[in-house]
């Protein structure tokens, strides 16, 4: 499978049989994304929470064949707009045709840009053919990340380092130590001045703790 990083918290997973899964597709209003919404398609869109920089272009990209996966309250908002949604909730997992999705806790908020309450924010664990990707969503550092890493062997951890709204670099390094992923990939930085952070500093600190880190370029795609 392939993992593409658009920038911010927006990723695309393409499975070996060409299913396309987008996570938090914030593209058109994202000054750092080299890819815009009209250039992508999705079989599934997984949303961590309802903030505008995460729902992003979901309603432009989703077609009749696209399933939006997220917590119940946000899924109901998507369904009320005529989109196909699969309601889940935190702690629950579900097997889809591409693999398994489990939602975890995340410490953050979640309202739509219209101010509508959209349930709790979530982290996302996606398991495809025995490999697991943990996209933490927007979150503070929390000690239960240790439990997440114990319950699921995390191969790839995608986590925010931009500070202000989420973990900054030092908290994110501790999060890596708690989860013990095979590879840490920083996200949610340098999109706006307020979340400016140097991913190379994060990488250096992660490596000093004995873990691997890859700083993906905005628009880069790697084979997992
Ligand atoms: Ni947010
Ligand atoms: Mn955010």
Ions and ligands: nickel (II) ion, manganese (II) ion
**Major pleated sheet:** 7 strands, mixed
Query: Span from first to last CA?
Result: 6 Å
The helical percent reads 10-25%
Radius of gyration from CA coordinates: 16 Å
Highest CATH level, the class: Alpha Beta
The overall pLDDT average reads 98
- Look at the helices and sheets and give the structural class: alpha/beta
Low-confidence stretches at least 5 residues in length (pLDDT < 50)? none
CATH superfamily: Ribonuclease Z/Hydroxyacylglutathione hydrolase-like
Number of helices: 6
| Overall number of structural domains | 1
Strand order of the largest sheet: 6-5-4-3-2-1-13
* Overall geometric form: globular
Strand content: 25-35%
- Identify the CATH architecture: 4-Layer Sandwich
Strands, total number: 13
H/E series: EEEEHHEHEEEEEHEHEHE
């Amino acid at each position: 499978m392939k993992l593409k990083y658009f920038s911010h918290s927006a990723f695309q997973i393409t499975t070996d049989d060409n299913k396309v899964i987008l996570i938090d597709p914030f593209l058109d209003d994202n000054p750092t994304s080299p890819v815009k919404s009209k250039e992508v398609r999705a079989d599934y869109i997984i949303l961590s929470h309802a903030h505008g920089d995460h729902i992003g272009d979901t309603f432009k990209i989703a077609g009749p064949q696209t399933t939006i996966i997220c917590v119940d309250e946000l899924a109901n908002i998507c369904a009320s707009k005529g989109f196909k949604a699969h309601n889940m909730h935190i702690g629950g997992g579900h097997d889809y045709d591409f693999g398994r999705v489990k939602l975890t806790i995340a410490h953050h908020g979640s309202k739509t840009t219209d101010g509508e309450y959209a349930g709790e924010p979530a982290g996302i664990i996606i398991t495809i053919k025995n490999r697991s990707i943990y996209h933490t969503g927007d979150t503070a550092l929390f000690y239960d990340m240790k439990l997440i890493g114990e319950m699921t062997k995390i191969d790839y951890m995608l986590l925010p380092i931009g500070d202000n709204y989420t973990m900054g670099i030092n908290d994110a390094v501790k999060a890596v130590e708690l989860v013990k992923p095979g590879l840490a990939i920083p996200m949610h930085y340098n999109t706006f001045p307020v979340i400016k952070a140097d991913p190379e500093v994060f990488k250096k600190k992660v490596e000093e703790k004995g873990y691997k880190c890859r700083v993906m370029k905005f628009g880069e795609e790697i084979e997992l």
